[in-house]
TrEMBL record:
It comes from Actinoplanes auranticolor. Residues 75-86 have a biased composition (Polar residues). Pfam families: DUF3311. This is DUF3311 domain-containing protein. Residues 66-86 are annotated as: Disordered. Signal peptide: none annotated. The lineage of its organism: Bacteria, Bacillati, Actinomycetota, Actinomycetes, Micromonosporales. The chain crosses the membrane at residues 12-28, 40-60. The keyword Membrane applies. Keywords: Membrane, Transmembrane, Transmembrane helix.
Length: 86
């Protein structure tokens, strides 16, 4: 039986940022400044996607487990097989 999995890394707390950030409406509840004609509401909402992707990537890289390598096979003899010429 394998050991129970533990996902209790402190890096997982960074995932709270992309969840809470869009919920704080005073950050983006205004019309100006405009970016390429879009009100701040729209381009800030779009930028939250990038924040989520970057945060998720950081947490993944910091918490991924090293790959499991299979056990090395037993060493075989490197002598060439003897041939008999009759």
């Amino acid at each position: 039986m394998s050991a129970p999995r533990s996902d209790r890394s402190p890096w997982n707390w960074l995932l709270v940022i992309p969840i809470v950030l869009p919920l704080v409406t005073p950050l983006y509840n205004f019309d100006s400044p405009r970016l390429w004609g879009f009100p701040a509401f729209y381009w800030l909402q779009f930028s939250f996607i990038f924040v989520g992707v970057i945060t998720t990537s950081i947490v993944y890289q910091m918490t991924k487990r090293p790959p499991v390598t299979p056990a090395a096979p037993a060493e075989q003899s490197t002598k060439p097989a003897e041939t008999t010429d009759e």
